[in-house]
Structure formats: structure tokens, C-alpha cells
């Protein structure tokens, strides 16, 4: 889906997120399991979702990745999501599944997050929202790293992120691929080359991690015209 600008992308996507949540809640156990993303487009979307009619009491929220900082740190993805959306809607605290990082050792937090996924999203996610960097990274899965090559674990630590801060925890490609719907939100001309590799498949993911972002039922690239490049 190509949009003329970021505002149009956000407006359309917000309505579709609300509809996807309602669809998920009408099936299965009545709950929706959604992975949030940060970045310019991601945070703009979260702010816009405040105005949508969503039954937040039956939504479990997860995060694609997190920096190794406390939640009240300005760089915390969870903290930014709370400020943009979660502090403004009627969602129970127990429904917000953060990594619990605090700047110290990360292994125990990653183990707890894997346990939380097994408990609260045992069959995967209904919707995984993703941003993308100019080199094609998604979550904290960067090209030519051990994290992007992970085939088994759902969550791993990252200690050498090329984008500061170096220490992070992230969902892996197997976790992304456990989502029924994967929606990529991409804006900016500098991302055009990477965006052209979306949908290339897992074999291309080491060079372009976005290529491995594939949903079980649906994979949608939601992109602004300036980032579409050869996709136009």
C-alpha cells in the first residue's frame, strides 16, 4: 500500500489496526495479541490509536525490541509507547508485557520474556507492527548479525547493535513469523532500497532483515510515496 504522505499512512493504518484487533477478539479466546513498534511512524500511529474504538481490556501488548534502559529512560521503547498511547487508554497493567530491562545483565530478562510469550501468546501474535531502518533492520535485527540468523529462540540479547545503544533485547525472525499479520510501516526516501527487499524471503534476511518479516496469513508493506522508489 503506497500513501502520499505519513499522515495518510497513519490514518489508514490506525483504522485497520482497530479492525484487526476486533477481528482477533471475535475469534479464539476473545483476546488480541499485538506487538507494537517505535520510530517516527510507529509512535505517530500509537498517538493516533488513542482515538480508535478498541476494547483494550482484551488486548495483550508486546514490544518488538527494547534498549537496555529502565522504562522511565527517554530511549525506552516501552516508555515511549506508554507516553504515546498506553497511559491514555483503559488497558490493564497486566496486559502490558515489557522486557523489564534496567541497564544491567539482560539474560534473565530475556528468559522471563520468553516465558511471558509462552504464557500470554502461546500460539503467536495476531498482529506484529514493524518499522524499518535504512539498512533494512527490523526490531533490533541488523544485517549480518547473530540475532538475525537466529532460527530457534523467540527472544535474544543484542550486545553489539550498530545503532546506539549497543545493548538491547529483541524478538527474532521466528517470533515475527509467528504473527498472523505482519505490517511494515515505512517512510522516507533513504529507505527505498531496503523497502524493495521486503518480501524477498528468509534466505535474503541476513543482508536485508526486512526480507524475513513474513506473517502466517498476511504481510503488508505500508509505505509512503517517497520511500516507494522502484515499487511505484
Automatic annotation (TrEMBL):
<dbReference type="InterPro" id="IPR005900">
    <property type="entry name" value="6-phosphogluconolactonase_DevB"/>
</dbReference>
<dbReference type="GO" id="GO:0017057">
    <property type="term" value="F:6-phosphogluconolactonase activity"/>
</dbReference>
<protein>
    <recommendedName>
        <fullName>6-phosphogluconolactonase</fullName>
        <ecNumber>3.1.1.31</ecNumber>
    </recommendedName>
</protein>
<dbReference type="InterPro" id="IPR006148">
    <property type="entry name" value="Glc/Gal-6P_isomerase"/>
</dbReference>
<dbReference type="InterPro" id="IPR037171">
    <property type="entry name" value="NagB/RpiA_transferase-like"/>
</dbReference>
<comment type="pathway">
    <text>Carbohydrate degradation; pentose phosphate pathway; D-ribulose 5-phosphate from D-glucose 6-phosphate (oxidative stage): step 2/3.</text>
</comment>
<keyword id="KW-0378">Hydrolase</keyword>
<dbReference type="InterPro" id="IPR039104">
    <property type="entry name" value="6PGL"/>
</dbReference>
<dbReference type="Pfam" id="PF01182">
    <property type="entry name" value="Glucosamine_iso"/>
</dbReference>
<feature type="domain" description="Glucosamine/galactosamine-6-phosphate isomerase">
    <location>
        <begin position="6"/>
        <end position="217"/>
    </location>
</feature>
<comment type="similarity">
    <text>Belongs to the glucosamine/galactosamine-6-phosphate isomerase family. 6-phosphogluconolactonase subfamily.</text>
</comment>
<comment type="function">
    <text>Hydrolysis of 6-phosphogluconolactone to 6-phosphogluconate.</text>
</comment>
